Amino acid sequence: MENRLLGIYLNDQLAAGVLWRETARRAQRNNDGSDLGDALARVATAISEDVATLEGIMQRLGARKNPVKTALAVAAERAGRLKPNGRLRSYSPLSRFLELDFLVYGIVGKKVLWQTLRDCARLGERLPDVDFDALIARAQWQRDEIEPFRLAAGTAALGDARADGADLRRSSGGVRARLLGERTSH
Q1: Shortest CA distance to 25 belongs to which of 11, 16, 13, 37?
Q2: Taking the alpha carbons of 50, 137, 102, 181 in that order, is the dihedral positive or negative?
Q3: How far apart are CA 142 and CA 46, in angstroms?
Q4: Which domain holds residue 42?
Q5: Which of 24, 43, 138, 151 is least surrounded by Cβ atoms within 10 Å, i.e. has the fewest?
Q6: Do the domain assignments include residue 185?
Q7: Quick one: which of 39, 54, 36 has its CA closest to 135?
Q8: How many structural domains comprise the chain?
């Protein structure tokens, strides 16, 4: 690769993408069977496609993948499961919120990645067939897809100490339940 620093940057971003892909998959499994789970399945698929796109860009530029960095990203995601969440054995409202919050950080970072590659690395000129504007728009769509769920999960986890997920699921009209991703009986 002609620019060693770009290769390092791409590998760092690939590792981050793998971390967020694995987090999205875990969050989807934890919320399977709900509206949130469905949204996370769509986002996880899009993140996987973004990782594949980045790998394709790296291959075209001759940047070798660093398997150590990607393995460390997978290990970091798994280690992140061990953090205290306020419950000993079960998935908590804090777990849901932290997963969604972390995903938003990653999605915003990915939007910046595509802008950086297009503008700073000038890949928009060097790889004119890569639609960086569409990749930026897809990152924005991913954020928009999970943002209502993140806000509801944050309220459930960090809001009124008396309100836990069960209270919100029983709220009038099921609006909060839909935001949290549970199926309603309507």
Answers
A1: 37
A2: negative
A3: 8
A4: 4-180
A5: 151
A6: no
A7: 54
A8: 1
Question: Which residues, including other chains, have CB under 8 Å from residue 45's CB and lie 6 or more apart?
Answer: none
Residue 69, pLDDT score: 79
The CATH number assigned to the domain holding 98 equals 1.20.1260
For residue 186, tell me if it sits in a domain: no
Chain mean pLDDT for the chain = 83
What's the pTM?
A: 0.79
Tell me, yes or no, whether 66 lies in a domain: yes
For residue 156, being part of any structural domain is answered with yes
Q: 69 versus 15: which is more confidently predicted?
A: 15
Per-residue buried b or exposed e for 95-107, using 16+ beta carbons within 10 Å of the residue's own CB: bbbbbbebbbebb
